[in-house]
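ok so I'm stuck.
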Amino acid sequence: MAKATKKQALGRGLSALLNDPSNDIQSVQDKNADKVIGNIVELDIDFIEVNPFQPRTNFSEESLRELASSIKELGIIQPITVRKLGVNKFQLVSGERRFRASKLLNLETIPAYVRIANDQESLEMALVENIQRQDLDPIEIALSYQRLIDEINLTQEQMSERVGKKRSTIANYLRLLKLDPIIQTGMRDGFISMGHGRALITIEDQTIQLDIYEKILSKKLSVRETENLVRDYNAPDNNLSTSKKDDDEAIPKYIKKGINAFSEYFGHKIDVKVSKNGKGKITIPFHSEEDFNRIKKLVEGAK
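replied:
not stuck anymore, here's the structure
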């Protein structure tokens, strides 16, 4: 108990130091910087803003409520990390779920590690911390890797050192971004695994990718079954691509122009059949009750 009291007192003392306008710490060379950086500080939650560079965008409300319940019972076990922007102004680097859950509980303060970092360093820290999480979907990881390439100018070799992953592993994630956006969404929503996605990458034609994707969902194909199906599509004597091309040529141009918009809107490949007299039928597939209700809301919202 004595140790906990001492730690709280230390935190309050550091907080007072940070709140002193005459000692605005902006770099590691500034006076008293060594007393703040790397120590746990109790910060006023109202002084903290979320990180605009945060690569993670999906936060489950149910998961946040469960975390809030845990924090209420046990407290915050792992402090968040922030960077100092000015007097009484900090920005999250990592720990946004803990921060959001604490706000749900209307906590006034939160334990935090204080870092001194510029925008690029903050982005890199947020991206690397995000990649190392255990509950991310493959597309979210791939997008984080791509941002490190585009915005931090890191090579795959440099990323390998930063995140402790093999270069081949990073390359496999990045290749997922070549999949049709509908398939990427399906992977993010948990309809298919990364293994399914890696099998589909070997097919360049995204129309055929979507055809196989729909078969995976409707027939609940395993990764191995998907790999076999892809192998059949890629076989030299395969006539499936030719027949698909013939079917496409039979579809009027005005439908071809609009069908992609339908598919992107509903998040599935929409099937269209047209008779010789110009009449046709649009089929919207769904793969679960949850998926059906999602599509139903889209239709109702379009009224």
